[in-house]
Amino acid sequence: MDDIKLTPAETLSKEPRRWIATLLAVLAAVILAAWSSSALESNSTGGAGLSVAKGIILGILHPTTDILFTLGQNGIPYLLLETMCIAFLGTLVGAVISIPFAFLGAGNIVSKPVAVVFRVIVMAIRTVPSFVYGLMFIMVTGPGAFAGLLTMSVCSVGMLSKMFIETIEDLDKGILESLSASGCNLFDKIRYGIIPQLMPSFASTLIYRFDMNLRDATVLGIVGAGGIGAPLIFAMNSYRWNDVGAILLGLVVLVLLVEWFSSKLRTKLMRG
User: Fold this and answer.
1) Superfamily of domain 48-270
2) Which tens digits make up the pLDDT trace of 186-228?
3) 217 Cβ neighbours under 8 A, 6+ residues apart
């Protein structure tokens, strides 16, 4: 007997109906949202909040040009350069540390027990928030850009190692088998068969992490880890809204430029 061909509408009508499961999932989400909202408290601040918002907006519209275009250590260009250097060097140091972690954590490169051990180490590094690392390094090295550099490096190790491990494990196993059949050892397989394939993906991940570190370095400056965050919080605490506006304008310009450049570079890398 010839198979009976069904129309698309008949095929869809025979699909299992999951509306009950969907309804239960939506109901559970609504209950969880209602239960979570019960813990929220709204504190009335009167007109203080609106006054602060108005001051920030007016400060952005009328920034202090003296610090915006001053090239000294107290000027915004220098502080932005320091922030970008912290993010860049933190990404670079984190990448150097992440590469051996990634290869030792990849199950298709080393034995499973070794891979599990290094995966646990990476997971433990990623568990601690960047603010905690910042406070820890400030206690060790004192406030300044070096504490921010160490914080960005450790935070980068957690994310980059995880991403690198996933990239390595997605490689074609046939390449590794052919290299093993040729008598290549572990380092030969990494050097000649794996790294050339991983470079575009690794570079794209590094650029993405640099974008994240640039924003994190700005926030870490608030706790004294260098960069432009400390002058920003000091200006806000002293209600110098024109200085706040100048700093925020500098940050916006820097982030936009870095985002545009990194997007172009990532596109070129992925397209070869």
Assistant:
1) MetI-like (1.10.3720.10)
2) 777 777 777 777 887 888 888 888 888 888 888 777 777 777 8
3) 83, 84, 86, 87, 90, 148, 152, 225, 226, 227, 229
